[in-house]
Write a structure and sequence with these properties.
Elements (H helix, E strand, L loop, with lengths): L2 E3 L1 H7 L4 H8 L3 H8 L8 H11 L7 E3 L13
Antiparallel strand pairs: 1-2
Helix pairs in contact: 2-3
Length: 78
């Protein structure tokens, strides 16, 4: 998949556990794991809105595009 979800970096910046973050966003920790592991096929705008509100960030801070012919090089440096 060409869309990478960089939640780990944001959770660390905000000192949030997956459980705390899931409760604040209103989804299950299992669904957070699906997002973090790149297994999500879609994200509702309402969920993305809740993620951005919780982390006080923009969608581009948690989502990035990588061309299919390039390997994922990990999260960008802060």
């Amino acid at each position: 998949m060409a869309i990478i979800v960089d939640l780990d970096l944001q959770l660390a910046r905000h000192n949030l556990s997956v459980g705390e973050f899931a409760a604040a966003v209103g989804i299950t920790p299992a669904n957070i794991a699906v997002l973090k592991n790149g297994r999500a096929k879609a994200v509702r705008f309402t969920t993305l809105d809740a993620i951005c509100r919780t982390l006080d960030c923009q969608p581009g801070d948690v989502l990035r595009w990588v061309p299919d012919d390039e390997p994922d090089r990990g999260a960008p440096l802060p």
